[in-house]
Write a structure and sequence with these properties.
Elements lengths: L2 H4 L11 E5 L20 E2 L2 E2 H12 L3 E6 L3 H8 L7 E6 L6 H8 L1 H4 L4 E5 L2 E4 L5 H8 L7 E7 L3 E2 L7 E3 L5 E4 L8 E9 L15 H9 L3 E5 L3 E4 L5 H10 L2
Parallel strand pairs: 1-4, 1-6, 4-5, 8-13, 9-14
Antiparallel strand pairs: 2-3, 6-12, 7-14, 8-12, 10-11
Amino acid sequence: MSRQQTIRPIPRGTVPETAMVMAAGLGKRMRPLTATRPKPLVQVAGKPLIDHVFERLQAAGIKRAVVNVHYLADTLEAHVTDRFAGIDVVISDERKMLMETGGGLVQARHLLGDAPVLVVNSDNLWIDGPVDAIKLLASRWDDAKMDALLLMVPLARANNHGGMGDFYLGSDGRIVGRRKPGRVAPFAYTGIQMLHPRLIADWPEGPFSTNIFWDRAIAAGRAYGQVHQGLWFDVGTPAAIPKTEAMLADG
């Protein structure tokens, strides 16, 4: 069989029209680089972190991005407005209070629509494998079975990641459990997921983590994971930047 014949086909699935880019964090672990700029604007490999994310959104065909802002919000809002061709950027304003990931989804709920959305952390940097990671998620999405579909990476391939993993997956991709204290879990969450807005319900007051929504979906058997086929980098600290850039330079 020729090399051309062995290339995997592009996954088929409906890519979400809307993405939410989580960009409101304080960036404490990235200090001192975040003393004068929000973390999404920290430069890695010649461009801000959030620009790497938007390039992936453009490549996948995302048409609309909701970006939440809090720390140095004016700077971040100015950067993303009218910058990315083909993507309509809408701001979810958290200037008065940082809502964390779950609270950020609640505050932006009226902007997300009623179809599955892509949710991406702005401090991610990933390289697609044989197929586009966002399109791979879309191809795997099964609305009858899922409320959340998380892109994961094997812990051994979680570059710069200091954690011990997050989840266990069943043979069908269902999330069957979280890492237990003192144990290592085989898969780390990449900060990229598809989520159905119906999961955003019965929330607590004030800031809270998306873990509340995930735990509900896991308990109901409606949370799944998809293993990323390319490279992924946790760029959460200044020390991670040169390590990431060195790996990218090596091709």
